[in-house]
Amino acid sequence: MNWSRLIPDFFVKPRNTVIQIIFTSVFAYSFILIYHPFGSQSWFDVNTGQFAFYVGFVVVLGMVVVIISRVIMTQIRKRWPITIAGYALMIALEVLAMTGFYMMIQKVFLKDQRFWFEVYYTAILNATLILLIPYLISLLYFAWLDKKQHIEKLLVENRLIGKQPEIELSRFVNFSDENGEIKLSIQLDDLLYLESNENYVTIHYLDRTQAGRMLLRNSLKRLEEQLSGYPIVRCHRSYMVNLNRVKLAKRTKTGMILELTTPVAIRIPVSETYKNEIDKVLKI
């Protein structure tokens, strides 16, 4: 495995993160109550109701750890790309933090009489089991969903191309805000690229020989779906580019860049996630 490879976007999409946290919580609570991993209920002199309460308390603490971890990961990702190794490290830290809470509950609140090492060994096994199983299931589901959406997009594009062989000659491109209201119509040849910033997208275009821009409240993901019939493709989590304006694709030490045909040189980065797709459309 290439640990230095960047994680796919679907790993950390806000919607996927929320689904993963909820699924992990439900899975952990149900799994412990049903299977009592490592004979956990037999360690303490508690009834079923008390055991369910303590399990719920552990799960809530664990999810707080995960939420804090994902908030930190989001902030880090705004400044630096996250690799597979970095993502694995964050999960390992989540497991260790949950292990600490688990040990505290066992030794302090439940008065576990076993040695600290035995408690630590059992706690880290439980924490690993509780997190890794639902994480693996959810990530496999997100990967399948991402591939499914990608295939559906290709099928739509193929149908559009089959019906309209000259689709690239469409003169105008319409841009709508998040409410579906058209805010800008621009000739395809004048469009340069789109740049995402949080909940807004900046549309860069040429007005005669001058560079122009317009800020639109929308997401790049939603615009990507709306523009699927045009030669405007995603090349980075923050950029989409008009292929008709690409003058050259250059590989550098820091990665691939696209240089646009403009009066002033404009270079757009291509991330590892989209490099293969850009290679295909440019037939590199």
Report on the architecture of this protein.
The structure is a single chain. The chain has helices spanning about 15-35, 50-80, 85-110, 115-165, 220-225, 270-280, and strands at about 170-175, 180-185, 190-195, 200-205, 210-215, 230-235, 240, 245-250, 255-260, 265-270. With about 280 residues, the chain is an alpha+beta fold. The protein has a 5-stranded antiparallel β-sheet with strand order 5-4-3-7-6. A 3-stranded antiparallel β-sheet has the order 8-9-10. Strand 3 (about 190-195) and strand 4 form a beta hairpin. The longest helix is centred in the middle third of the chain and has 48 residues, at about 115-165. The radius of gyration is 25 Å and the shape is elongated. Residues about 165-170 have low confidence and may be disordered.
Number of domains: 2
Q: Characterize the biggest β-sheet.
A: 5 strands, antiparallel
Ends: how far apart? 25 Å
* Global structural class: alpha+beta
Number of helices: 6
Main-sheet strand order equals 5-4-3-7-6
Short summary:
The chain has 284 residues and is of the alpha+beta class. The protein has helices at residues 14-35, 48-79, 84-109, 116-163, 220-226, 272-282; strands spanning 172-176, 182-187, 191-197, 200-207, 210-217, 232-236, 239-242, 246-252, 255-260, 266-270. It folds into two domains: 9-153, no CATH class; 167-282, Beta Barrel (OB fold (Dihydrolipoamide Acetyltransferase, E2P)), CATH 2.40.50.1020.
What keywords describe this structure?
284 residues, alpha+beta, OB fold (Dihydrolipoamide Acetyltransferase, E2P), 2 domains, five-stranded antiparallel beta sheet, 6 helices
